[in-house]
Design brief:
Layout: H1 8-11, H2 18-30, E1 36-46, E2 52-60, E3 67-72, H3 80-96, E4 105-111, H4 115-120, H5 146-155, H6 164-181, H7 183-191, H8 210-222, E5 228-236, E6 244-247, H9 255-264, E7 268-269, H10 285-290, E8 298-304, H11 309-322, H12 332-345, H13 350-373
Parallel strand pairs: 3-4, 3-5, 5-8, 6-7
Antiparallel strand pairs: 1-2, 2-4, 6-8
Helix pairs in contact: 2-3, 3-13, 5-6, 5-7, 6-7, 9-13, 11-12
């Protein structure tokens, strides 16, 4: 009864750096032999140890399978420590024979969607773009966020070293907005996505990011219209500590939402319905999949909670103030902020890691059962 739920070997799927995570993941994949086909999608840029960056795409099983489980990690770079571990855990269990793929089901793993953010321990990419706000039509007028515009200077001051008095005024402005509009509208303004302030939070960019271009290539090859697809996008940061919430951003009354609810049951939460830890957002990766998915497919985000959202926003604001795009030179301040952000999105504690792996296994099993049984 007192033995651990998971062994130290099982928990060893969690890594302490992008390079270690990628090497461990590819090592686990190699143990699958001919069952797996892997390729690297190149990424322009280097990591902090001058390492090459790439998104790893791995197909496991029959290339012609009509049912496909898709796992994405590190859409928000620093959150990849969790996502990579869940992916590697699945690969290890397949290679050891603990689990097997049923006929007709394949697995697609996209490891390190935003490898730059993963390597540098940032949510954003090298341009400061939040990849999960980048999936908008840039040929059309970009979404407007007047709430963010009102709060932009208070959230991320343009001053290099704002004085204490300014910081106090900024906090007062944020609290006044929160009290006037309420938590939901406050979060919508701050985190819903904005396309105006390149140094700001949740910035969707002015064009397609590298990560989006790579993911669009993966999506085209997947041919969702000809398959039943279950996408699980692995994230961290929102919700109670260690809890894995299943968030579905399919439109209300859509076939995709109905499929998600059928497969995952009442655990599914819906931002558009107001019952999720997440508010509705613009430019999500989800939307690219929604456009090409059939009625027996769905996309869910598996969001593992860490610490309170007020602390999350504080960490992100400090990260954006101190660590500007293109300014990656090491300093005591930037290292402090990096470690702070890393802890916020990856609490490297066995209790949290155990909750992540157990919930990850459960959700993967539910997805596979849904794909195979309809």
């Amino acid at each position: 009864m007192l033995s651990p739920l998971l062994s130290q070997r099982e928990l060893s799927v969690f890594s302490t750096s992008y390079r270690a995570a990628e090497q461990a993941f590819l090592g686990a994949v190699s143990a699958l032999g001919p069952l797996a086909r892997a390729r690297a999608l190149p990424y322009v840029g280097r990591g902090p140890a001058d390492e090459a960056l790439a998104t790893q795409q791995v197909w496991i099983g029959d290339p012609e399978a009509r049912q496909v489980l898709v796992l994405l990690s590190a859409v928000h770079g620093v959150e990849g420590f969790c996502g990579s571990a869940v992916q590697q855990d699945l690969v290890r269990r397949l290679s050891s024979g603990q689990i097997t793929l049923p006929p007709g089901l394949a697995v697609l793993l996209v490891h390190g969607v935003n490898p730059w953010g993963f390597a540098w321990c940032r949510r954003v990419d090298e341009q400061g773009i939040d990849v999960n706000r980048n999936f908008v039509d840039f040929s059309q007028p970009l979404p407007d966020n007047p709430g963010y515009r009102e709060l932009a200077q208070a959230l991320v001051p343009t001053e290099a070293e704002p004085d204490a008095e300014l910081l106090v005024r900024n906090e007062q402005q944020l609290m006044a907005y929160l009290q006037q509009h309420g938590q939901f509208d406050y979060e919508l303004a701050v985190s819903g996505g904005q396309y105006e302030f390149a140094d700001g939070l949740f910035y969707g960019g002015q064009g397609k990011s590298q990560a989006r271009l790579n993911l669009e290539q993966v999506l085209q090859e997947l041919d969702c219209a000809a398959r039943d697809v279950a996408v699980i996008d692995l994230h961290t940061g929102l919700g109670p500590y260690g809890h894995g919430e299943l968030i579905c951003d399919h439109p209300l009354a859509s076939p995709g939402l109905a499929t998600a609810q059928h497969w995952y049951g009442d655990a599914v939460t819906i931002p558009a319905g107001g019952d999720s830890c997440s508010v509705p957002k613009t430019g999500l990766v989800d939307y690219a999949f929604h456009q090409v998915m059939g009625p027996r497919s769905c996309y869910v985000t598996l969001e593992f909670g860490t610490y309170p959202i007020a602390e999350l926003l504080r960490c992100l604001r400090e990260d954006h103030r101190v660590r500007k795009p293109g300014q990656q030179a090491a300093s005591n301040e930037s290292e402090r902020v990096r470690l702070q952000l890393l802890k916020q999105f990856y609490p490297a504690q066995p209790q949290w890691q155990t909750l992540v792996l157990l919930r990850g296994r459960q959700v993967i099993q539910l997805a596979c059962q849904g794909l195979m049984n309809g």
